[in-house]
């Protein structure tokens, strides 16, 4: 998972070392951002964060150069929680006889993670276009999941051009797209018919696709076809 550089936590943007007061101010800014994110009706901007934190804009700019940098700081602990939320379950090979239930557990856990952190994750995705930092964060977040899906397919994550890598990448792209749609209040609110009542079926369908893909690659390995 992407991590904030330790230097970002020990110095402000002028290179001044942060003491207890400086670290407290940085945490205050992040906490204010988290409060604003919790209210979907409140637009998020640096000026809104400064007001929420009762700080001058000049003070905020000592810690974060722009909204992307601030969002990355908020996202860091969120993505760190992904290990417990859904990744740890993938680190043990799912038995063939219970593969379907494990796939459904994973897809449900991934969806639940997005529901808990929906606004921060949607803002990350909306900021991806044209911002290399967000692209890097998004890719770095997906890479461990892709590797674990390859592992579930009895493949080698170190073989980047394998069919398994392509399948795992396509699968996590599809899963993320599904949860993006089902957790986006603006999108679902403007649909002729809300997908919310059908979410369990959508997740079950996605889990079935995942199960079939894993079974296909495992059978290929067992047959010596790679």
Features:
Tetracycline Repressor, domain 2, 226 residues, mainly alpha, 2 domains
Q: Can you offer a commentary on this structure?
A:
The protein has helices spanning 6-10, 20-37, 46-52, 57-60, 67-80, 82-87, 99-116, 118-126, 132-152, 163-183, 185-189, 199-222. The chain is mainly alpha-helical and 226 residues long. It has two domains: 6-73, Orthogonal Bundle (Tetracycline Repressor, domain 2); 81-222, Tetracycline Repressor, domain 2, CATH 1.10.357. Helix 7 packs across helix 12, helix 9 crosses helix 10 and helix 10 runs antiparallel to helix 12 (199-222). The longest helix has 24 residues, at 199-222.
The CATH architecture name of the largest domain reads Orthogonal Bundle
Largest sheet: none
CATH class placement of the largest domain: Mainly Alpha
Helix content: 55-70%
Strands, count: 0
Q: What is the end-to-end distance? A: 29 Å
| Average pLDDT over all residues | 87
Rg, Cα atoms, Å: 20 Å
- Overall number of structural domains: 2
Poorly predicted parts: none
Tertiary shape: elongated
Put simply, the count of helices is 12
């Amino acid at each position: 998972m992407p991590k904030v550089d330790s230097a970002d936590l020990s110095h402000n943007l002028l290179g001044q070392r942060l003491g207890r007061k400086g670290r407290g101010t940085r945490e205050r800014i992040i906490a204010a951002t988290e409060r604003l994110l919790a209210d979907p009706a409140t637009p998020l901007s640096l000026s809104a964060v400064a007001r929420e934190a009762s700080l001058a804009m000049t003070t905020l700019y000592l810690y974060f150069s722009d909204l992307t940098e601030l969002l990355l700081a908020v996202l860091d602990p969120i993505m760190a929680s992904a290990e417990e939320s859904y990744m740890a379950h993938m680190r043990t090979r799912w038995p063939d006889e219970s593969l379907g239930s494990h796939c459904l557990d994973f897809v449900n856990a991934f969806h639940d993670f997005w529901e808990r952190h929906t606004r921060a994750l949607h803002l990350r995705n909306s900021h991806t276009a044209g911002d290399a930092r967000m692209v890097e964060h998004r890719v770095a977040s997906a890479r461990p999941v892709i590797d674990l899906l390859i592992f579930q397919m009895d493949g080698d994550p170190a073989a980047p051009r394998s069919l398994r890598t392509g399948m795992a990448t396509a699968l996590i792209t599809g899963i993320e797209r599904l949860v993006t749609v089902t957790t986006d209040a603006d999108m679902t609110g403007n649909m002729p018919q809300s997908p919310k009542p059908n979410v369990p079926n959508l997740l079950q369908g996605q889990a079935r696709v995942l199960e079939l893909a894993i079974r296909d690659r495992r059978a290929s390995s067992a047959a010596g076809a790679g």
